[in-house]
Design a protein that fits this description.
Helix content is about 75%, strand content about 0%. It is mainly alpha-helical.
């Protein structure tokens, strides 16, 4: 009884700080996310090719930094990797407000903005370590609550970004984004010392290579996210070009998907522990296949809206549960597990534009959407071939020694 009470007290104390950190991070990401390409084109006057190179440099840097910080976290869990991952982009967006030189933009993107892509994985790895002090399913449900908060921030952030842009242009937007990233540090510091994870003396802290099931799941998530990102490129053009519908319909469809995703992610918090996460993820991937098969076959707005509900449910099932599923596959390496999950999305964002653009140009928008269905199906097959994650034995609640050492609670 004392153990359960201590676990609940720990989660109750840590979760508000983690929620604040995730909300601020989501706002920072979403305020600048839709407008960074426009900054390159409109303010820096870059050609489409140079804009593409700039965005690719950020993505490649993000892959490298995310992997590096994930390994560093597992060698010695702490807050400093997350702090680095939010302060670097804060400095980067401040620097962007002072220059439009292409060479400097590339340096800023590689050295500072790429690190910002590691912030998501670091904050969620930190959350896993702190919430693992709880018994039962508190860790998994806490992660789902945090993922829902991140989605909620993405529903609000673009509106705030647009308001800042309309108010004082890109200078205001970049400064507000830098401030939001910097503010993430405050709740991270309020978390207190990071609990140490006890391991047997002969247990390696960081395996040299993830086991095959983990690699299969990561590849499956990468394919799912490739379909998601490529579909986000093809759908607006399909709606406005092929179906000749108004631009406002694109916004309505996007909003419908976002609302469905947030509600589904919150509902997953109530998912019983006995339900296989792998099966729910596979159901989400199957739903994605159905979505990408249905959309090219319909033209009425009600059916398109219903399809967007299915899309939101699928994204919630895969991307909300996917974090804890990957962490369960690597229970002793939350940093690497969350980095693999994040890098699956970053890699997908790198290749999805090319996939969608090339297919749409040669075969049309319907073909691009159907290709996304095939990619989703391939991702589901990879996850299906991976074994179920091991059932992690809940760790006993832990208290912090005054010097920072974590001690089991009697």
């Amino acid at each position: 009884m004392h153990m359960v009470f201590g676990a609940g007290r720990t989660v109750g104390a840590k979760l508000p700080h983690l929620l604040a950190a995730v909300l601020l991070l989501g706002l920072a990401d979403s305020m600048i996310g839709p407008y960074l390409v426009l900054f390159g084109a409109d303010r820096a006057h870059l050609s489409p090719l140079r804009v593409g190179v700039f965005m690719s440099v950020i993505a490649v840097s993000g892959l490298v930094v995310t992997s590096w910080l994930g390994r560093r976290y597992d060698r010695g869990p702490g807050r400093w990797p997350a702090v680095v991952a939010v302060l670097a982009p804060a400095a980067g967006y401040l620097a962007l407000s002072t220059t439009t030189s292409y060479a400097r933009l590339l340096v800023i993107g590689a050295a500072l903005l790429g690190a910002g892509l590691a912030a998501f994985s670091q904050v969620f790895a930190l959350a896993r370590t702190h919430l693992d002090q709880a018994s039962g399913t508190a860790s998994s449900r806490g992660t789902l609550a945090l993922r829902s908060a991140f989605s909620l921030a993405w529903a609000v952030g673009p509106i705030l970004g647009a308001a800042a842009l309309a108010w004082r242009g890109y200078s205001a937007l970049l400064l507000l984004t830098a401030l939001a990233f910097a503010l993430v540090v405050a709740p991270l510091l309020l978390l207190g010392p990071t609990p140490a994870t006890p391991r047997p003396a002969d247990h390696p802290r960081t395996p040299t290579r993830p086991p095959r099931p983990v690699l299969l799941v990561a590849a499956g998530f990468m394919l799912f996210n490739t379909a998601m990102c490529a579909g986000s490129v093809a759908l607006p053009l399909y709606i406005t070009r092929t179906l000749a519908r108004a631009d406002q319909d694109v916004g309505l469809l996007a909003s419908t998907c976002a609302v469905a995703e947030i509600r589904a992610a919150l509902a997953l918090i109530l998912l019983p522990a006995r339900v296989s996460r792998q099966r729910v993820i596979l159901l989400g991937m199957l739903l994605f296949v159905a979505y990408f098969t249905l959309v090219p076959a319909v033209s009425s707005l009600p059916l398109l809206l219903a399809a967007q509900v299915a899309r939101g449910l699928a994204i919630a099932a895969v991307n909300a549960l996917g974090i804890t599923y990957m962490q369960d596959l690597l229970p002793d390496s939350p940093g690497r597990a969350t980095a693999l999950f994040s890098n699956a999305f970053i890699t997908a964002s790198l290749v999805s534009g090319l996939v969608a653009g090339a297919t749409a140009q040669t075969l049309g928008y319907r073909a691009a959407l159907l290709l996304c269905a095939l990619i989703s199906a391939a991702g589901g097959l990879l996850v299906l071939t991976a074994r179920h994650p091991p059932r992690a034995t809940p760790a006993p609640p832990r208290t912090q020694h005054p010097a920072g050492e974590a001690l089991p609670q009697a």
